[in-house]
Structure formats: C-alpha cells, structure tokens
Amino acid sequence: MKKITVYCGSNKGRNAAYEAEAKNLAKELIKRNLDLVFGAGKVGLMGIIADEMLQAGRNVYGIIPQSLVDIEVAHLGLTELTVVETMRDRKWLMAERGDGFIAMPGGIGTLEELFEIMTLNQLGYIQKPLALFNANGYYDKLLDFLRFSCQEGFLRQEQLDSLIVSANPEALLDQMAAFSPNYLPKWEVQ
What we know:
The chain is of the alpha/beta class. Helices cover 46% and strands 17% of the residues. The protein has 8 helices and 7 strands.
C-alpha cells in the first residue's frame, strides 16, 4: 500500500478525542511512509488529517467537486488538488486512487462512502482493504446493526468479517497491510 483513502467528517465533532485521534492516525500513516487521498476539504477532521500529513512532508491528494470549491471549503495547499464535476466523480476517483480505505468518524457522507466501498468489494469491482477507525467507540452502534443485518440474512458474515475494525491506528494499518482479497459471489446459487 502506498496511498490510503481516508473518509472523515467535514466537522470536528463535539468530543475533542476525534481531533486527537485524527492526528494519531496521521502520525501512523506518516510513520509508514503512506500518502493520503481524501475529499480535499480544509474543514473538520478532513483539514486536520491533511495538515498533519503535509507538515510531515507526505503527499496529500485531494479530490473535490467544483460546487464545494465555489463555497471555499477546498484545501488549496495540497500536493495535488483534482476538481471534478460531481460527488459521484469524486467518490469514484477516491476509490480508484487509494490502495486501501479508512473511515474515520464522520457524518452521512462518510457513511455513504463506507458503504459504497463495502458494496464495490462485495460485487468484486475492487478488492481492497476497508477499515473502520473506531475512535472513541464512534462506530459501535453501527457495528451492532451490521451484526443484526447478518443475523437477519441480509449481509453475509464473510463480508462483515472482511471489514477491519480498530480504535488503534497501528493495529488498523497492520491489519490492512495483511489484507488478502476474499471475493465471494453475493448471490447464492439455488
């Protein structure tokens, strides 16, 4: 892995732990000589992780739709800023350019990105590691729901098991580095 796509909030959240954990994740990415692909925002957790990476001399690649550039949320100090037309274009380029994915705490956009990568992996369009950085237990209730979805027969246990989850950046990246694709067709033949 050389580039990690990180999905995260355009807000910092109410708990200062989220900002601290964004910095901790950046430190671990830096330690491993990894570069960042992200949504190019200068605000919230996005701006925090990008700034940490840039200050350490790492490459930071941002992808953002023109509409967000127009309202002045684009981080203009990046290694490379790619401006696209739509959010769909942004998400596809972020998926294409990253060698693996981490979802930090974030809002509905982060959740959408997380589920899109889960779906792309499930359908075999990509086979790349996907991790939840469960800082401050942020994703605990979502994980409960995903386990329930497995119990109800709407999500395969193997798919859930392929989702890497940790509140520790070092453990998270170790598991991502050890990832081995395990594509299983979604549909059961009857």
